[in-house]
Amino acid sequence: MPEGDTVWQTARRLHTALAGHLLTRFDLRVPKYATADLTGRTVLDVTPRGKHLLTRIDGGLTLHSHLQMDGSWKVYAPGERWSGGPGHQIRAILGTAERTAVGYRLPVLELLRTTDEHRAVGHLGPDLLGPDWDPDKALENLLHDPARPLGEALLDQRNLAGIGNVYKSELCFLLRTSPWLPIGQLPGERAAQLPTLARKLLEANRDRPIRSTTGHRDQNHYVYGRAPRPCLRCRTSIRVASQGDGSRERPTYWCPACQPGPAPQTRTEPSRTHN
């Protein structure tokens, strides 16, 4: 699932394929921009911002996209078969003489003035993989609402940008803390290390084709997707339950022995979940 590291990798692929090249094809398959035509213009850069992608094009325009849960950008060489999904899922096509970038299942796609990018990303907290990273500000944001459960606070992109459901679960495990613990009750030394640990995990994975938070080849995650299998640390069965992020419920994984603290009633998932 796309999180900050995935978006960073996507931006790098798009930038390598498109930046500095003239657009020979520009097709946005959403009603609002169906007639937009930027062919003949040069792509200046593709920049990630948290989970958002900003494709800047000369003439002062930016194509803003967000992958959310299922979106993706694929890059193809001339003549290469497009394989990112059926044609009706294509939302954007940006083509040059040498490469074509195709956006599939993009739930957010809008054309902005570059000077108006703040409308799309101005609400975001410090970007874990960006030049604006500020661990002190990120921690201040997280602690602003001390009664909020830790897992929810981590998913709120206004606090710090780039964490999704995988990193939320893995961070709480590494901090040995329940995702339902009010963040204001997180011991001071653990709270202090949280932003640095989060950045360390994303930085370690931004160049990896397969995400790993454990460092072990045979097991990529400590808890995420592993219910009801045994914890790698203590052998207790991993649990999973829904937890909100302010917009929807998401599955949260944790070890009840290694991560003491508040916990909801739980359900378990079959062992064929993400590894």
From TrEMBL:
GO terms for biological process: base-excision repair. It comes from the Bacteria. This is DNA-(apurinic or apyrimidinic site) lyase. Residues 242-275 are annotated as: Disordered. It holds the Pfam family Fapy_DNA_glyco. Residues 222-260 form the FPG-type domain. The keyword Cytoplasm does not apply. Keywords: DNA damage, DNA repair, DNA-binding, Glycosidase, Hydrolase, Lyase, Metal-binding, Multifunctional enzyme, Zinc, Zinc-finger. SUPFAM superfamilies: Glucocorticoid receptor-like (DNA-binding domain) (SSF57716), N-terminal domain of MutM-like DNA repair proteins (SSF81624), S13-like H2TH domain (SSF46946). GO terms for molecular function: class I DNA-(apurinic or apyrimidinic site) endonuclease activity; damaged DNA binding; oxidized pyrimidine nucleobase lesion DNA N-glycosylase activity; zinc ion binding. Residues 2-121 form the Formamidopyrimidine-DNA glycosylase catalytic domain. Belongs to the FPG family. Its EC number is 4.2.99.18. CDD domains: AcNei2_N.
